[in-house]
Amino acid sequence: MDIRTLCLGILTLGEASGYEIKQSFEDHFSRFYEASFGSIYPALAKLTEEGFVTCTELPQDKRPDKKVYRITAQGRLAFIDELMKPPGRDRLRSEFIATLMFADLLPTRHLSDMLDERVRDARGAVAEWRAREQGRVTPGQRFVLGYAIAMHEAMARYIEDNRHLIEGHALLTPGAAPAG
Amino acid sequence: MDIRTLCLGILTLGEASGYEIKQSFEDHFSRFYEASFGSIYPALAKLTEEGFVTCTELPQDKRPDKKVYRITAQGRLAFIDELMKPPGRDRLRSEFIATLMFADLLPTRHLSDMLDERVRDARGAVAEWRAREQGRVTPGQRFVLGYAIAMHEAMARYIEDNRHLIEGHALLTPGAAPAG
DNA sequence: GGGTCTATATATCGGATCGAAATAGGTTTG
DNA sequence: CAAACCTATTTCGATCCGATATATAGACCC
Known about the structure:
The structure is a homodimer. The first copy, chain A, is mainly alpha-helical. Chain A is 57% helix and 8% strand. In chain A, helix 1 (3-11) packs across helix 3. The first copy, chain A, is elongated and about 65 Å long. At the A-B interface, helix 4, strand 3, helix 5, helix 6 and helix 7 of A face helix 4, strand 3, helix 5, helix 6 and helix 7 of B. Strand 3 of chain A pairs antiparallel with strand 3 of chain B, so a sheet runs across the interface. Chain A binds a DNA duplex through helix 3.
């Protein structure tokens, strides 16, 4: 499932320009799948070539011209074909986790700041998704939203519950009493 | 934090060949950060050029020759410098989630198989990590291992608890009784 | 008034990375 | 005894990201 296919998928929800597809990626797939303009525009060009989408140029005043893409019947079939393929493994690239693997090389203060920031970010994302959960979404979208919320809540909870493992052991060492 | 830096990190744990670094990625970073030979070998060449690692060719009988890499003092400093930079956002590419966004386009049977497979995979990964948890690891590694376990347990649990949202509503609709 | 920021909109390019193949001998498995 | 897999490195096309270029216009600040 490449960006080309995902663009096709977004176009099953309605016509859109490249710019709007980028926004759609941020709205619907944020944190699960991302795509840059450098992928989207060439993808749309190729999909047009292949007859999976059609393109209508739409002049706008006070705005740059827009190219509106619409999925074709052939494109719909191609998309379903792709959807039916068993999904590949998740591919995550987490600099956060990679850094924590080497936690023993970093000052505790630095680690604490990183963990605080991470928990804040996760909780913030959960709050945003909870707001969106109220809106009108398909069952699939509701499931994915709930998944995102569950994952990020688990992340924040795990960090809070286990940060002592890397933030120094003074308070856990038997016999050691906090100063003051 | 690019692959070059991650290679440097792995070399802080001891000398290794490119092949062994690939295995290390699979052991330590599996599902958090991946790297292919196509990234690792050029990375090691560049690190050697820059003086961050040294390379010793080691002829082996009954095996292809090996190039063993060792991190230098300069390399260690460069790695810490990189580690201290605030980690970038996690970047995930999940075909599984992308597919479920369009769950309404897929037959229920197909969805069920996908979800079963996913739960099986997550539970399997958790079992493997639990086994590794017993071994000798640094606090950072223990934290990351626990994180991996917590995330995948949350994933399996969420899917089990919410799969009815996309597997059809017959059993939930008031008044609807299962056939047979 | 000038400066910067943000938003809409598309195109393009360098560089990072993947995934697969090429090469080559040894070992395990059916 | 062939097929499959393990060790080990190199290389290459394809994909994708991130940044930049281009153009216009409203918002905000000093």
